[in-house]
Specification:
It contains three helices and nine strands; from the N terminus they run ααββββββββαβ. It is of the alpha+beta class. The strands form two sheets. Strands 2-9-8-4-6 form a five-stranded mixed sheet, with no helix packed on it. The chain starts with a helix and ends in a 13-residue tail after the last strand.
């Protein structure tokens, strides 16, 4: 009887272990693992697609900004289109007479198809001035501007002939409408549209030597 009971107990334990077939339990774990893998793969694929999409968006955005930056740089490197013709082009010639006020001349012509305002500036306003200091020129119109400068006596007795002065003159231009009257404030109000036509240096010549500046109207 003892053996029978032990056997039944053993059989009970055995059947208890065998109630679920081993392949059923393995399939469950495999199924769970597979589900987890699929979910993980789907999540990974979604993240990858999202990253690719974001990457494309960022690259496209960067390309747009890159193109704009390149375009801005290219525009900044382009030479400024001249509205005025100057004679002489880059220097003002003054007779060298220390202690005296001397003068030079420059012809300014509007070479554009629109009215153009011009204005003089100088780095030596205490010793230099221009007549007229500014104005408006119609298309193909020109005028002669006179530039006055006081020549400082040298520290020694040597004549500084043909020596460039540190003083500079700047000629600026601004396209305007036909009914606009000239006022210097135009260049302050529309400073983003102002173009620097030329920066002129100063050259001293012998008082006996004629100034090579042409003063003829064309």
């Amino acid at each position: 009887m003892a053996l029978a009971n032990e056997k039944s107990v053993s059989d009970g334990k055995l059947w208890g272990l065998c109630k679920l077939p081993f392949w059923h339990s393995n399939n469950s774990s495999v199924t769970a693992t597979s589900s987890s893998s699929v979910a993980s793969s789907s999540s990974s694929s979604f993240r990858q697609q999202q990253q690719q999409h974001n990457g494309i968006s960022v690259d496209h955005h960067s390309n747009i900004h890159g193109s704009l930056n390149v375009s801005s740089v290219a525009k900044s490197l382009l030479p400024t289109r001249r509205r005025l013709s100057l004679d002489p082009q880059n220097k003002l010639y003054f007779p060298y007479e220390p202690g005296k006020q001397v003068k030079s001349a420059i012809r300014i012509k509007n070479t554009s198809k629109n009215p153009v305002a011009f204005k003089f500036q100088t780095t030596g306003p205490k010793s230099c001035y221009m007549r007229p200091p500014g104005g408006i020129l119609a298309p193909d119109e020109s005028l002669i501007a006179t530039v006055f400068k006081f020549v400082e006596p040298p520290d020694n007795n040597e004549k500084q002939v043909a020596k460039k002065s540190r003083v500079k003159f700047k000629v600026m231009s601004l396209k305007v409408k036909e009914d606009v009257d000239y006022v210097p404030e135009l260049f302050d109000e529309r400073k983003d549209e102002v173009a620097v036509e030329q920066v002129l240096g100063v050259v001293f010549l012998d008082a006996e030597r004629p100034c090579p500046v042409s003063t003829r109207e064309t």
